[in-house]
Amino acid sequence: MAQSKDDATPLWWTAVKLVGCAAIIAAIGFAIAVVDISGSVSESHADISWHSPFDRSNTERLTDALDNLGHDDAARYNLNGNTVFFSTETSRKSPRQVMAEYQEEFRRQGLNDRIYVNLSDEERSERLQTALTGGIVPFAITDDKIAMRGVVTANQATDAEELSEIQQAADSRYEIFRGHRYIEISRPNHRRHTSIVATWSDEAFDFERMLPGSEAEGVAYDTTVPACPGCTRLSRFADDDPGAGDRVDLSFIGPRNIATTRQFYAQSLSRSGWQRQSLNEPLRGLERQLGSSLTGAETDRFSRGSEELSLTFTTDERTGHTLTLASLTGS
User: Fold this and answer.
1) Which residues lie closer than 8 Å to 182 by C-beta, 6 or more apart?
2) Helical pair 124-132 and 160-169, crossing angle rounded to 10 deg
3) HEC secondary structure over 112-164
């Protein structure tokens, strides 16, 4: 039996969101980790300014830079009530060559004050301040993979003094930052092309909405898929482009094992009119591929009228708890 695109979508979408959310979490983690700004940046670091008759935001400069670098049009998503974007590109050049091109474009657009192509201790202070003032700098470099990141503060800080001001004015670390940028450049040994994945937010990103079980103002919820007993909601990820289709991804984490969690969903969804579906062989192949990157992953699929729901269960290696990933389409 041939595999249809619609049949493959739920598992494929879950895999994509795992990668995308991981990138966002990495960028957020960086912002929180460097929240102690005082004394960590260089007072002599040059301010970044944009001399133009039009006042462009940091996000607009980044979008222009990616356009000039050949990226696809950005796809827009809603993550826990925050607006985030993804865009990709490929190149025949090496990851280091690609990094140099991107750094040059970031400098040209006024995001960076200089080009950063290594992790030298001499430039550590400057790199950090550039990353904290809306620039994008490398933080991990190997021959086959490079990662770059940066953040935007609530006061659009451009120097050490303004960084210190926002730190002192904020009641919590989550109020300091209002945007993130993350770019990954990779080329495995067996590939001829280098892949570039960029993810970023607008300048109204609320980091508090990303806290597990957050009840922050504006956080997005979805009641179609219930939280399992004792579970905490981690994320809601949905298309935010008009005409992009009705597709929502949710994630929960809880202390019960996979078997008990699966049983809860089978019973709860059945009472709500959902019918369990069997996976055909192509979908089982996709399940095995997804499971190869998720320890002990198991998948169930349900339908209700025009709605399709795929549930993937795996064990969180840090806590030993069960992580439930739900992909809902057609709602």
Assistant:
1) 23, 24, 26, 27, 147, 148, 149, 198, 199, 200
2) 60
3) CCCCCCCCCHHHHHHHHHHHHCCCCEEEEECCCEEEEEEEEECCCCCCHHHHH
- What lies within 8 Å, CB to CB, of 82 at 6+ separation is 201, 204, 205, 206, 209, 210
Q: Are 135 and 126 in contact (CB under 8 A)?
A: no
Closest to 140 measured CA to CA, from 113, 116, 163, 158: 116
Tell me the pLDDT of the chain (331 aa) as tens digits: 333 334 434 443 444 444 455 555 555 566 555 545 444 444 444 444 444 445 789 999 999 999 999 998 988 889 899 999 989 999 999 999 999 999 999 999 999 999 999 999 999 989 999 999 999 999 999 999 999 999 999 999 998 899 889 888 988 878 888 999 999 999 988 888 999 989 999 999 998 888 888 888 999 878 889 999 999 998 888 887 655 557 888 999 999 999 999 999 999 999 999 999 986 544 555 555 444 445 568 889 999 999 999 999 998 888 899 999 998 988 6
Tokens 């990353």 belong to residue: 131
Q: Where are the domains of the chain?
A: 34-206, 221-329
Asked whether 160 and 153 are in contact (CB, 8 A), the reply is no
CA angle 25, 28, 32 (to 5 degrees): 135
Q: Report whether 85 contacts 201 (CB < 8 A).
A: yes
User: Which pair of tokens denotes residue 257?
Assistant: 């094992």
